[in-house]
Amino acid sequence: MIRRIITAMICSAVFSTWAETGQFPIRTSPKPVTTNSVPHVQIDVEAIPELTAELLRRVQKIPGVEIRETVISLPGAKGFWLDDEMTLARPDAIVGGREFAHIHPDGSLHASLQPELSRAAVANGWAVPHPWSDQRPGWDGFVMIYTPTSMEELNIVYQLVLESYNFITGQNLPIEKR
């Protein structure tokens, strides 16, 4: 119980700092090895089903987002689709259709982030650039976000999904404190 309270306090402080400064913590889990080609996947990483389910539960609550089969990734991946009525501020950053991000069966995600944020996510150990991120205008923030290995990591990964949503739609959904 005390550990949960302390974790909640730390997460609250982290998200308050992130909201105020735009910085987020350094990921302390080992960086997964990834391919440097397409398909762009992690090697020897398995998702934790409870964390994947929780992330999908949260994503389903984002306004105007529907979870569907992906049109751009591997079989079994789930795409995060924007409703047709949603305005897109950055359609050039979407890889296919209105799918602004997707989650792979291994729990990693591909998403387009604001380029400066994508560089910070990479520098802090949360993501790696997609091999094609420098191949097309608008894709310079396209990254693979590593599989979360704990609830604390899931909270950060979810915030990155919200940041992707905000970047693509021009919305300003707040970073949630959990």
Could you please describe the fold and organization of this structure?
It is a single chain. This protein is an alpha+beta fold. The chain has one domain: Aspartate Aminotransferase, domain 1 (Alpha-Beta Complex). It contains 4 helices and 6 strands; from the N terminus they run ααββββαββα. A 6-stranded antiparallel sheet has the order 1-2-3-4-6-5, covered by helices on one side. A hairpin with an 8-residue loop joins strand 1 and strand 2. Helix 2 runs parallel beside helix 4 (151-169). The longest helix is centred in the first third of the chain and has 20 residues, at 2-21. The two termini are 16 Å apart.
Write the layout of secondary structure elements.
Elements lengths: L1 H20 L27 H12 L4 E5 L8 E5 L16 E5 L5 E4 L2 H9 L3 E3 L12 E4 L5 H19 L9
Antiparallel strand pairs: 1-2, 2-3, 3-4, 4-6, 5-6
Question: What is the CATH level 1 assignment?
Answer: Alpha Beta
Please give the share of residues in helix.
Answer: 25-40%
Q: Sketch the major β-sheet.
A: 6 strands, antiparallel
Give me the CATH architecture, please: Alpha-Beta Complex
Strand percentage, roughly? 5-15%
Summarize the structure.
With 178 residues, the chain is an alpha+beta fold.
Main features:
178 residues; disordered N terminus; single chain; six-stranded antiparallel sheet; alpha+beta; 4 helices; Aspartate Aminotransferase, domain 1
